[in-house]
Amino acid sequence: MFYYVSGTVAHVEPYLAVIDCGGVGYACRTTNQSLSRLTVGEKGKLFTHLYVREEIFELYGFATEDELNCFRLLIGVSGVGPKAALSILSATTPEGLAMSIITGDEKALTVAQGIGKKIAQRIILELKDKLAKGQIAPKGESYGGTGVTVIPQNKSSEAAAALAVLGYSQSEVAMALKGIDVEALSLEDIIKQALKKMVKQ
């Protein structure tokens, strides 16, 4: 229904930002990461997700499309609601979440408030499974191609898998990783550089 809201930041508080768009204030539930990019009285833009369930009708907003994609992936995991997803994305970045899933680092997820070991394990298991089956590539191209579980063997393939978690296609990932010195950089730095290149495209 809404792709994004853009206007003057009218109000911020923990997990909430109000964006004034032509005299209408849109209350967007959001993360600490997104809030850190907003300043009251200045222009702001949030990519949105409208959450509707029974009598619940809430708008969620994120400073980047990567964060929005991660939110949608997380609420697609059984037992993970919007509140838990916001908590996770307030404690880590999209690339950090992708790395946690690919490397199976449940401890990185339990740092988030309200996220225990069992739910962290479920997130890793379900999203790894979706990645292996090519279900985490909304633009129509699957990572791995065959539906066979892909176990990354080096930093380059781990970075590619992490970017696939964020919703990028194989061709986009290949272009983004081209020219990056994967041997000299850490996995997180590789992912960050690749994301910067894709944002500029």
From TrEMBL:
Gene3D superfamilies: 5' to 3' exonuclease, C-terminal subdomain, DNA helicase RuvA subunit, C-terminal domain, Nucleic acid-binding proteins. Coiled coil: none annotated. It comes from the Bacteria. Residues 155-201 are annotated as: Domain III. Signal peptide: none annotated. CDD domains: UBA_RuvA_C. Residues 72-91, 107-126 form the Helix-hairpin-helix DNA-binding motif class domain. InterPro entries: DNA_helicase_Holl-junc_RuvA_I, Hlx-hairpin-Hlx_DNA-bd_motif, NA-bd_OB-fold, RuvA, RuvA_2-like, RuvA_C, RuvA_C_sf. The keyword Cytoplasm applies. Keywords: Cytoplasm, DNA damage, DNA recombination, DNA repair, DNA-binding. It is found in: Cytoplasm. Homotetramer. Forms an RuvA(8)-RuvB(12)-Holliday junction (HJ) complex. HJ DNA is sandwiched between 2 RuvA tetramers; dsDNA enters through RuvA and exits via RuvB. An RuvB hexamer assembles on each DNA strand where it exits the tetramer. Each RuvB hexamer is contacted by two RuvA subunits (via domain III) on 2 adjacent RuvB subunits; this complex drives branch migration. In the full resolvosome a probable DNA-RuvA(4)-RuvB(12)-RuvC(2) complex forms which resolves the HJ. Has three domains with a flexible linker between the domains II and III and assumes an 'L' shape. Domain III is highly mobile and contacts RuvB. The RuvA-RuvB-RuvC complex processes Holliday junction (HJ) DNA during genetic recombination and DNA repair, while the RuvA-RuvB complex plays an important role in the rescue of blocked DNA replication forks via replication fork reversal (RFR). RuvA specifically binds to HJ cruciform DNA, conferring on it an open structure. The RuvB hexamer acts as an ATP-dependent pump, pulling dsDNA into and through the RuvAB complex. HJ branch migration allows RuvC to scan DNA until it finds its consensus sequence, where it cleaves and resolves the cruciform DNA. Belongs to the RuvA family. This is Holliday junction branch migration complex subunit RuvA. It comes from Pseudoflavonifractor gallinarum. The gene is ruvA.
